[in-house]
Amino acid sequence: MDNTVGSLGRALTSQQKALIIGTLLGDGSFEFVTSGKNVRLQILHSGKQEEYVRWKYRILQSLVRTEPKLTSIFDERYGRSYTRMRFRTLCHNEFVQLRKIFYRGSRKIVPKEIDTLLIDPLSLAVWYMDDGKWRPDCRGIYLDTICFSIGEQKLLISCLQNNFGVGECKLHWNGEGYHIYIPYPASMRFRAIILPHVIPSMIYKLPPITPERLSRRKFRQDRVESQSYNTPVSRQQSVSIKEVGMKI
User: Quick one: CATH architecture of 1-109?
Assistant: First the structure.
C-alpha cells in the first residue's frame, strides 16, 4: 500500500529540507494524493543508483513508511528491460508549501526566490548527483536544466555565483535546448563545494583535479587536496551573467 498521510506535525530537519530542495531541481517530484489536498515526495532513479537511493532514504527515513523497491520495466520500443529504484514519502504540510513554490500546475519551475532556498552545499550536491556530469576533454561541468526556461536558468546561474562564489557560468545549447555549463576552472570551485557531500558511488560524476580521472581509491586523498579551493563565500559576490542571443 502506498504512503498517504503521516508525520504531518513534525518539522523537516535542515538536512531533509536541503536534500529535498536539491532533488526538486533534479529528479525528485511531488505528487498529489487524497483528492489533491496532500502532497508527498517521490524519489526515482535507475536501478544502477541503488546506493544513492538508499542514501536519500536514510536521510528521509522519518518521513517514509516503506523501504525503496527495485522494479523492472520492459521497453517494447527497444526490446530491453530496465530496472529502477523508487520510494515515496508520507505526506507533509511543508510539502504543500514547497509544491506551491516549485510548481506551476504540473510543471516544475525555478522560483524567483531560489536565492533564499538554494543556500546549502548539500542541496547543490544533490542537484548535481541527480542531474550533473562532467566533460572529460576540458573538466567543465554540465547541469541538465533543459526543462527550465532560460529566465529560470539565469536565476540559477545568479544563485551559483552569488551564494556559492562559482564564477563563470554559461548557458550552452546542446541541440535540444539550453542548459547550464560551468567551465574550468570555475568547475573546480563547484567541485570543492559539493565534494564533502558526494557519496562514494557518485564520485565518478566529479571532474578530477588533475586531467587524469581519479579512482575511488583516491577519494579520501582527493577530499583533502580539494580543501584549498573550499574558501568561505560572501553572499555579496556577484559576476554578471552572459546573455544568450534570444528573448526570455
Answer: Roll (3.10)
Would you list the DSSP string of 170-222? EEEE-SS-EEEEE-TTHHHHHHHHHGGG--GGGGGGSPPSSSSPPPGGGHHHH
In angstroms, the CA 141 to CA 187 distance is 6
Give the model's confidence band at 219: pLDDT under 50 very low, under 70 low, under 90 confident, else very high: very low
Give the C-alpha separation, 22 to 9, whole Å. Answer: 23
Question: In the chain, where are the structural domains located?
Answer: 1-109, 110-231
CA-nearest of 80, 23, 22, 79 to 47 is 80
Q: Does position 51 have pLDDT exceeding 50, yes or no?
A: yes
Give the global pTM.
0.82
